Amino acid sequence: MSEIEVKVIGIDCNDLKDKVKSLGGTLVKKEFQENYIFSLPSELNSTGYIRIRVTKDYLHNNNKTLLCIKKVISQEKVRKMDEREFEVDNFDEAFGFLSALNIEFLSKENKSRESYKLNNSLIEFDKWDDEVFPYPYAEIESEDEEELNNIVSLLNIPTDKVTSKGLLQIKKEMGL
């Protein structure tokens, strides 16, 4: 499945969230995530990562564990990823499976996420643990680039606040 997204950095997330709600955006997720990040095998000749995500869903009062691989397709105006994700019922077995394949575990990173559906897009507000990334930001994910651009325009987000860069690249550029 292809994922098309941008990050919105250096904005007041509460103001943006209010704007999303005023335009009819509906809350679809409120969760805490534990993200276990693994490297991609070098044979894939791709940029990306493998992730096990454990979520505590506050809206539906449940937990789930997801296994995902993300590979960067392009990072020009928007970030396009090939993403494959599915639910697993046993975190320890998933972790052990990746370890048995000699896939390198890189880090555990926690974040809180609140997501809103607006038109055909998802606007997600993320706050990582401070040692991972100290600033809240938004992500806009859409089915296609035109829809994504329409949402950015509808929300009056300045273009200099929108980036297709990944979090690692943003952190590097910020000296974090």
From TrEMBL:
Family annotation (CDD domains):
CYTH-like_AC_IV-like
Q: Which Gene Ontology terms cover its molecular function?
A: adenylate cyclase activity
Read off the InterPro entries from this record.
Adenylyl_cyclase_CyaB (IPR008173), CYTH-like_dom_sf (IPR033469), CYTH_domain (IPR023577)
Residue stretches making up the CYTH domain: 1-173
Matching entries from Pfam families are given as:
CYTH
Source organism's superkingdom?
A: Bacteria
- This enzyme's EC code(s): 4.6.1.1
Gene3D superfamilies reported for this sequence: Hypothetical Protein Pfu-838710-001
Record key words, sorted: Lyase
* UniProt protein name: Adenylate cyclase
